[in-house]
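Researcher: Please translate sequence to C-alpha cells.
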Amino acid sequence: MNKPTICIVCSAAEKRMQAEKLAKQTGLDLLDEKSDAYELQLRFDKDRVVLHDSALATAVHVDFVAGALAHRQQFGGGRGQAIARAVGLKHGNSPSVLDITAGLARDAYILASLGCSITLVEQSALLYAMIDDGIQRGLAHTASANVLRNFSALINADSIAYMQQLEQDSRPDVIYMDPMYPERKKSARVKKDMQILQRLLGKDQSAELLLKTALECALNRVVVKRPVHAGIIGGIRPDASIGNKKTRFDVYLMKS
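Model: Translation complete:
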C-alpha cells in the first residue's frame, strides 16, 4: 500500500495557531481550505478536528459525547463485557491501564467509564490532535467529563521508547494494545473509519516488538485485541483468551 498524500486544513481562525504548530511538527502542507488533491486531510473546523478521506468521501473524528460510544457506555454491559474481564475488572479492582495504541481512544474511553485510570500513548501526531480535540469537547459535557477525568495523561510518543523509559514506580498494572488488524481479503467488510486509519498509519510492522516490550513493562498483565480468527502475535501464546464472535482479547499474565 502506497503512502497517501496528506495535508492539514484550517478554516477556523481560533484554531490557526494549533494547526500551524502541527504542520511545523509534521512537515505537512497547511491549507486554508480543503483540496481533493490530497488523499487525506486533517481539518481543523470550528467545532471539531476531523480526518477526511477524499477517496472514501467520508471523515472520522473522536467523539465521546454522542453516537455509538456514548450508547455503549450506557448499554454495553459494564464489567461483564469481554474487554473488562480481559483487563481484570472484577471484585472492585480498578487497575491502572496504559493504552499503547490509542487510535481513536474508543476502548480507552470504555475502560475509563468502568473506573480504570488510563494513560494513552499515540505515535501519530494527527491522531493525537484528534484525541485531544475529542477530550476538550468531551470535558464540556457532564456525562463524558466524568469519564474523561480517568484519562490521566495523553502522550504523543513512540510506545516502545515510552515503555522502556518508565521507572518501576510508574509502571502500569495493565498494558493494553490494539495493533492494526491484519488485511482482510474482503476489504469491503472493514468499516470506513478503520479503513481511514489503515491508510493513515500503514501496515503495522512492530506488533511483535510492541508485545515483547509490554511484557517486560506491565506489572500484572498485557491484553492484546485481535480479530477472532487472527493468529497470535509473534507466536507468543497467551495465558487466556476472552472474546465474542468478532473479537478476542489475548491475556498475558505476569509471573510473580
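Researcher: Any highlights?
Model: DSSP finds nine helices and twelve strands in the chain.
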